[in-house]
Design a protein that fits this description.
There is one protein chain. With 229 residues, the protein is mainly alpha-helical. It has one domain (3-223). 49% of the residues lie in helices and 0% in strands. The protein is built from eleven helices and no strands. The protein has helices at 3-19, 30-33, 65-78, 88-91, 93-102, 109-127, 136-147, 159-175, 187-192, 203-207, 220-223. Helix 1 (3-19) crosses helix 8, helix 3 crosses helix 7 and helix 7 crosses helix 8 (159-175).
Length: 229
Amino acid sequence: MSKHDEARRAFLVGAAVGAGAAAGAALIPDALAQGQQPQQSAAATPPAHAHGTTPSRGYGAFLNVDESATIQAFTERLMPGAPGKPGATDAGVLNYIDLALAGAYAEQQDFYRRGIAQLDGYCQATYKEPFAKLSAAQQDEVISVLEQGKATGFTWPRAQAFFNTLRTHTIEGMFADPVYGGNKDFAGWRLVGFPGAHPAFTPADMASKEAFAGGVLIGLQAQAPSKRS
């Protein structure tokens, strides 16, 4: 992992710790709240740390194949994976964003569609390829230009606004409760030592400044009443 990747990961982890590891815990996308399973989630079995590839299972809850490939590549560069260090792809951040756009974040559908189209338009004009097919170094260059608000061809959303929104949603997808579609296998919580939704902590647990290691990680799904057929 390059120093650039390490710095980007450190920033996102630090932001999540500062906001609380359960960032986005109030979000319940409609598709999940209603107990529905989306048709073939685009992030169900994504290839880890790959560039120039598309999710393998077709369309998701909202994003199409090309849009999913762009978001997957973008979020992976924001939170790159490495051996022993889960990234956005490992944690299912694409799935989180896709489900949220189909439910609780539905008002941002046009924002995402237009933002992705403008992003790929900028990449085509600059590199003759869409964002998902660029090398990691080129993707990082594009992200840096977006972050600085210097990417051309953006009207609405503005380049910086699109970057800021994707970064926020990447943090949510990494560290929110897995019931919302991200943080697969508690990857984000394990990364920051967040114990999850345990029913009780001892006084010693509460006083300790060390990461809680007194039991298995528990999310909201495990606390929900079971449905009987």
